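Hey, resending since the last one bounced:
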Amino acid sequence: MRIGLWIEDAARRLDEIAADTQAAQEHGISRIWFSQRDGWDSLSLITALAPLVPEIRFGVGVVPIYPRHPLALAAQALSVQAATGNRLTLGIGSSHPVIVEGQYGLSMDQPAKYMRSYVEVLAPLLAGRPVDHEGLLTARGKVAIDGAEAPELLIAALGPRMLRIAGELTDGTITSWAGPEVIADYIRPTLDKALPGKEIVACVCVAVTSDPIAARQWIKDHYGLAGSLPAYRAILDRGAAMGPEDTAVLGDEAEVYRQLQRFADAGTTEFMIAPVGTAEDRARTIAFAHSLSHADAFPQ
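The structure tokens again:
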């Protein structure tokens, strides 16, 4: 199981983000991840950072599909590939009605059906092939950028229909708020029905800390509302979790290592550490992530 590191970019300057990125490369982290939220455009940010860190790989988890036509997203992703020497992993997702409908004013009817159509268009475009598609969305044309290879494509898939799409049409899935039991009993078997061995990137809040109770409260205060979103609520219920704080990995270095091994045993291929808690806890967590970055830290 590889170790990836999620880097916070909200309310931060480019030089601050770059410093964390350079430290991750120096310590052998295999891939750093950014989230597409209400600040930096993740793909643009990756392009700006790439010349500073020529070795590390990048992931975005995830780009919401509704505001971006697949022709536009393919052009942007392949531009990033050309600019970075083909180091991008592209994660896409449906997002949530409160964002798609509430902020963008777009319909989010039949999200799984729309996702299937979207990937059926996006995947060939990323491979440089032309498309002629008409249905839930219309797309005609191609994107051609010299030197750009098709990036690894992942779906933020939590429901069974989305997981089937991920297994059938992409390289795998990115999970949120899913513990090792949910991955072992539900996500891995559902993906494997389509094709065994697909990627599972598990994004999990982690605090290497001497005060797990305080870290749990921090997560509840900052991410508790995620438990009210239907897609997240469903995956939390599968793991009998009251809220996001119940899915976190918390404790000292030995305890965190033990819990990460459970994710590896469940079939996770990459564990994306999202540091949380106090500034001291986050620094300790990042240092621990750096110490685990060698490839055989968690044999499967």
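The CA atoms of residues 61 and 91 lie 5 Å apart.

Sorry for the duplicate.
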